[in-house]
Amino acid sequence: MSKTLILYFSKTGTTKRVAEAVASRLNADIYSIEEEDTYSHQDLDWTLASSRANKEQKDSKCRPAYKGKLPDLSGYHTVIIGHPIWWGIPPRILYTVLEDLDLSHKKVAAFATSGGSTYSVSQDEIKNIIGPQDIEGRVLSGQNAVDKWLTESGLL
């Protein structure tokens, strides 16, 4: 078993592609977080004020359910979390997942995909959920960015 696990959430495939690149580079295991109630195209349409994603992201207490059982982390030293940035922060389903995991004795890193956001607010949100540990996070957009982040963060 690999000592690194990539946990990621992706709806358009962008975060999935980056997660796969990170996993390949690190020879890490990978786990896709799936929502219990599948998002439709309309649910994800940020231009509709009434879209499900808009409502979820605006509600700080919202915790959408995930499908299945999360992986056992006992065999992993490092957990890398991948997600898109929605409305400046991780999707609310990530909060559900992180609140259900014990990451207290793990090295945690995180990456996001985004069309324009930086990672600082998302990183703060993740730190608020998992506690006061160092988290190396960055927005990634391609293999060069992946390689640079993995090297600079000491993950490679």
TrEMBL record:
<protein>
    <submittedName>
        <fullName>Flavodoxin</fullName>
    </submittedName>
</protein>
<dbReference type="InterPro" id="IPR001226">
    <property type="entry name" value="Flavodoxin_CS"/>
</dbReference>
<dbReference type="InterPro" id="IPR008254">
    <property type="entry name" value="Flavodoxin/NO_synth"/>
</dbReference>
<dbReference type="GO" id="GO:0010181">
    <property type="term" value="F:FMN binding"/>
</dbReference>
<dbReference type="GO" id="GO:0016651">
    <property type="term" value="F:oxidoreductase activity, acting on NAD(P)H"/>
</dbReference>
<dbReference type="GO" id="GO:0009055">
    <property type="term" value="F:electron transfer activity"/>
</dbReference>
<dbReference type="InterPro" id="IPR029039">
    <property type="entry name" value="Flavoprotein-like_sf"/>
</dbReference>
<dbReference type="Pfam" id="PF12682">
    <property type="entry name" value="Flavodoxin_4"/>
</dbReference>
<feature type="domain" description="Flavodoxin-like">
    <location>
        <begin position="4"/>
        <end position="156"/>
    </location>
</feature>
